[in-house]
Design a protein that fits this description.
The protein is mainly beta and 432 residues long. It is 3% helix and 43% strand. The protein has two helices and 34 strands. The strands form nine sheets. A four-stranded antiparallel sheet has the order 3-2-1-34, with no helix packed on it. A hairpin with a 5-residue loop joins strand 26 and strand 27. The two termini are 32 Å apart.
Length: 432
């Protein structure tokens, strides 16, 4: 780790200029950024107020994946080891919203004692103060599968022994569990053809969902959206979910009966409808922010998804105007919404970071953020990462050992920090 005296003049001036010391009669702290190393099995914590790496934690493999729990304090570490281990990092950050700004308090940083294992950890979803960690299970023709979800209250992660609830999936699936509040959970239903294991071409993606309630140690089904004969009650080949302001949007297959399943809740009643795609393509990842009118997804026929799709979940239909081609026919690669949902940051394989205005659906700025890179899943070469925290986009540059910040409101580059090693995956913020 380099000392602050070795930071570039750009980084030093950016730190000073980005701290609103007189605003609201106190300095607003910037917080911390968690990042992995491409070569070394270590997770580091960067203090954004000093430019120093303050903590380092050993993990089983290099460049683990991250998922940040609602509230932004806890980061789930997908270690990538053969045991399917998940660890939990307490960043020590407490975020309090004051409307026009967030106040951040910094507590101790630690790796908690909670360790979870299972077959193929995949989707991590949080909401309503709850965290759901889904294990897909192995392919049925490879042996006995133990697909499951582990559920835990986010506040309990600070305890030495948090209370855990385990939901056994009816079968292996690349599935999802979504917290719905008041002890209710949305669970994906496995594809029965895949579960049987007789047809190895069958998809592991689920085709529908059930909403269950946990009471007195048992599960009760409250609603089902798992009827393949009804487009508004199924989601063939599900992949991609986002939620905001009481609406959940799920990416389903393209083609006849396809589209997005938009699920809403009114009291104890649940309803769903299909929102068709503008054309023959589909989404696989979708992002949302509380209070924002629109969500944003990647869009394409198959990988690489070479478009961005603006999704208004209240709209009757989407049009070609909601589709934004990625320049040069590139993969949409990595994209994140600002905290207020008005701006979108998009890091593409050519190394550029583009900033879009979501309402106008146009490019506002473009930065040469990192050298060109391979965005394909499982790429052997170092892959930069994009994370958005509040109104800033952070980009890791493993080739040059730096982390850079871009302000999504002023459209200017801010921090440019040298860090030890080859910074790769970044943990973003979910303060919703």
């Amino acid at each position: 780790m380099r000392s602050p005296s070795l930071l570039s003049s750009l980084a030093i001036s950016a730190v000073l200029s980005s701290l609103p010391a007189l605003a609201h009669d106190h300095a607003v702290l910037r917080g911390r950024l968690v990042f992995a190393d491409h070569e070394k099995p270590v997770v580091r914590v960067l203090d954004l107020d000093t430019g120093e790496v303050t903590h380092s934690f050993d993990v089983p493999k290099a460049n683990p994946g991250f998922a940040t729990a609602q509230g932004g304090r806890f980061v789930v570490i997908k270690t990538g080891d053969d045991a399917g281990t998940l660890r939990f990092l307490d960043t020590g950050l407490t975020i309090e919203s004051h409307g026009d700004h967030n106040d951040i308090e910094k507590g101790p940083v630690k790796l908690t004692s909670l360790v979870l294992t299972g077959q193929k950890p995949a989707h991590v979803i949080s909401g309503h103060g709850q965290l759901a960690l889904f294990y897909d299970g192995i392919r049925p023709w490879d042996g006995q599968s133990t697909a499951k979800a582990v559920l835990v209250a986010i506040n309990d992660l600070a305890k030495d022994k948090p209370t855990l609830t385990e939901w056994p999936s009816p079968g292996p699936q690349h599935g999802i569990v979504v917290p719905m509040a008041e002890g209710r959970w949305l669970m994906s239903v496995p594809n029965p053809v895949y579960v049987k294991g007789e047809d190895r071409s069958a998809s592991s993606r689920p085709d529908g969902f059930e909403i269950l309630e946990r009471t007195k140690g048992s599960w009760t089904r409250l609603a089902s959206f798992n009827d393949p004969a009804k487009p508004d009650a199924s989601c063939k080949l599900y992949h991609g979910h986002a939620a905001a302001d009481g609406r959940h949007v799920f990416g389903c297959a393209e083609g006849e009966g396809g589209g997005m399943l938009v699920l809403s809740q009114a009291g104890t009643k649940f309803s769903a409808r299909k929102l068709a795609y503008p054309d023959e393509r589909r989404l696989s990842t979708i992002k949302a922010r509380a209070g924002a009118k629109c969500m944003v997804a990647n869009y394409g026929k198959t990988s690489p998804y070479d478009g961005l799709l603006r999704v208004d979940p209240t709209a009757k239909s989407l049009t070609a105007a909601d589709v934004l081609p990625v320049p040069g026919g590139q993969s949409a690669c990595q994209f994140e919404l600002s905290a207020n949902g008005r701006r979108l940051a998009n890091l593409t394989p050519d190394g550029k970071l583009r900033v879009y205005d979501v309402a106008a659906w146009k490019e506002l700025a473009s930065f040469d953020a990192v050298p060109a890179f391979d965005c394909q899943y499982g790429a052997k070469t170092p892959t930069p990462s994009l994370a958005v925290v509040g109104g800033s986009a952070y980009v890791s540059d493993p080739t040059n050992g730096r982390i850079r910040e871009y302000n999504l409101e002023t459209l200017k580059q801010a921090l440019d920090l040298p860090v030890e090693g080859m910074p790769a995956n970044l943990a973003g913020s979910d303060a919703g």
